[in-house]
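Before a computer can learn anything about folding, someone has to put a protein's shape into writing. The outcome of that step, for a single protein, is printed below:
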Amino acid sequence: MTIHVSNDTVQSAVLDEAHVGHIQGAFGTILRHDTGPRRGWRRQLSTLLAILGPGLIVMVGDNDAGAFGTYTQAGQNYGVSLLWTLLFLVPVLYVNQEMVLRLGAVTGVGHARLIFERFGKFWGAFSVIDLFILNGLTIVTEFIGIALGLGYLGLPRELGVVLAAVAVMGAAATGDFRRFERFALALVAGSLVLVPVFIMVHPPFGEIARGMFTPQFPAGGKLSDVMLLVIAIVGTTIAPWQLFFQQSYVIDKRITPRFMRYERIDLWLGIVLVVIGAAAMMAFAAGAFAGRPEFGNFTDAAGVAAGLEAHAGRVAGVLFAIGLIDASLIGAAAVSLATAYAIGDVFSLRHSLHRKVKDAKGFYAVYCALIVVAAGLVLTPNAPLGLLTNAVQTLAGVLLPSATVFLLLLCNDRQVVGPWANSRAVNLFTGAVIVVLLLLSVILTASVLFPDETNETVILAILGGGSALALIAALASGVLKRPAVTEDAKVWNREMWRMPKLSELGPAQMSRASKIWMIALRFYLVLAGGLVLVRIVMLATAG
């Protein structure tokens, strides 16, 4: 299906000319110069089908190999008592990713480049290095997931990992954006194999409902262990790579503010799928192991597959393993692409899936190198794969607050987003989320550095004291005061507004409170991240 559309009536900051043109989605095309209204359900549906992709891919890609381990660990060790965390994370997911898609559609510039331009070289370099290290480790975990799935199915691990790497590289390197999106959305559809596993296990719906709608901690569970698992759930559900991926993918798909409503629907569909997948894993792991010796003794995803076979039949185990491989493939593709987009954006390399390999060598070199190195590490004998998996979750949890801070500041920079700046309600909600993420990050850092001393008393002190300090700081800095109303937003045409070229923007305006918070955040991240890295290296050396 083909529709006529026009996107660019103003000169914008788009860094790669391949990011301007027709929207060529998996299920339809929207031509660049069609400015017709979307009247009637048929026209609106065809527009939505053409736009679908970024939200679905980023959300379902978040249910990757690490998520399979985290959610099934929660179910196997604590039953359905932590299901409620998923509902609490839904508004956080939406607010974060909605801000990102707004930035992408309005600016035409990737997340890393905006941080460089608006906050300076230190934060720009920090964000890219942080992203590169975390994403590289995350891609390793995706291939660990592929290896575990293949091992359970009795297929040759070495050949399977190599073929998976070739498939992920080949899907992106065709120079055809639509072909990659169809590949990714086929994997999104494949994630639904978890639903029949849930049906085969048939966990009790009454317990699931209580676990989903009644916040509670597992009876008899050690608070420090439960808190670390909750942090892992937060870290695997809200990962930094998602911000970089969705912003750049929206740009590469050539989506502009005119289609914001459709992209928000795409995002909601993705959130629904990610919650269904996560809840299904937690519930069927709880149902399969309840009252059995394996309950409370999680090992890894392969152990879950074996347990499902033992207690729900071979088909359940096979479908779970297929789902694990499917999730690992989409995760590897999305995380590699997020990194390649960021590197291309920062170093002004041609970086678009619309380009052939010969026309964007640096972009595809980064993408493929990450996959080759990750696959190679997984196939290397005696590689510390378990330590690498733990390192991903730990570093992601420690560094997560910084990504949300930059996102909040950028979405309040009127030179960048113009009439698309955050509302006061979004700012207050996101500020509260940052405080929670920061407190969880402190707990995680303390538990890694001082595992024996981080007990329930310390955790409660961090949560209580940190919350009080955050409230005092908010009151003192005037964050809770209602902002002054600006008149310029009334004359802007929101649908057609795009950020001007970066060279035309004035210096970023930051309040004194924001500067103080940024200095404190810089000190904390450098100290905590450095100490955690040292701890990981020490463990690797000792091993």
Remarks:
- The chain is about 70% helix and 0% strand.
- Confidence is low (pLDDT under 50) at residues 1-10.
- The first helix runs from residue 41 to 51.
